[in-house]
User: What shape does this take?
Amino acid sequence: MTTCDDIELLIGPFEDGELEPHEMEEVAFHVVACLGCKAALEDYRELGLALRGAVLQPSLDGFASKVADRIDHSWIPLHVRFGRMREMLSRAGSIFEIAVIAAATAVLTIVIASPYAKKFGLHSPPSTVVASTSGEIAKAEPKTIDAPPSAPIQPVSISRSEPRPEFAPPRELMLGDPATSESQEVMTDLTGGEGPSVPVWNEPRTQTTVVYVPHHP
Amino acid sequence: MSKTTRPAVDETELIEQARKGNTEAFGVLVERYQRRVVGVAMAVVHNQEDALELAQETFVRAYQNLSKFESRASFSTWLYRIAANLAIDFRRREGRHIVLRGEEGEYELEKLPSDRGDSFAETARGELNQRLREALKELTPEHRAVILLREVEGLSYDEISEALQVPRGTVMSRLHYARNYLRGMLKDVEKG
Assistant: This one.
């Protein structure tokens, strides 16, 4: 048999529904039979009602917008900022998003890659290139374009005993002044001397002189 | 989808969206919990102006730390805990100052006149409310916080325990003490 002292501590939790099922049952049986504990339970209920009436709730008008303002003016973690940007972009539409990403990529490429390109000589000064007998250049068909008057053809003879053209500095093969013969191509067939016939042409736009040496196995 | 499971799903989705930076989704969460968060702050600091300020700060902190929130936990309990921590820190920091402002706030509320003519029941209810507010001020902040969180905000014992970071047994004993104290006061009003 449970006493009032045992039950007293459980009346509040019983009213709050915070007891285990067997305790709820125990208190319920006791309260039905005990007038003192029943009165205590009634008092707790009245107290709860009175408290809810006595405590005045503050007005929450504009509360959410004030919170939003504070968030806008407060420190926000980077990952949340990036998330916000993504959210904005997705709302603006995929085309705009692609355009922004493309522009950003281009800017980044220019900003990041340019210094490295200069550093590693990717923008090297014009140089003369002598083609080898193999590879793609050997497949290229030399074509004849009218030579400008200011670019007299300098015959060059390369004998069989001489090393391959790639070992010979082809300074003397430069035809004309590239600065004055923009976008013109010069090709000639060098047949002077005892050497073999060697087609040579100049590409002013790339400032490159190409010597075509047929491969003789 | 049943009606009972929908709010939980929505809340998880809202939290996920807010994590990604969607402020509108977070705004919905603010609307949903603002009253209770203000109530938790009120229960601890017992002053409306400070409670509103602390509640706003609670939501800002929550937004900033959403990545730390574990989805398996209860979002509301997490919010109440932030609010209670901020309010307890505030109370410790402000000390006596907060009590004086609280008294001024109560005085302003009590001076509000009734324009409908005071019936006997209204007068009696007004007296009861006034006595209750006075009795609440006589309680220690710890006892007051627990009974307000339970009776006014309707928090469960576990939620109170989590928010105030005290054992459940402590919640029960504080609640028992506060109830008996206020009950005695109510008896005195009835007798008088």
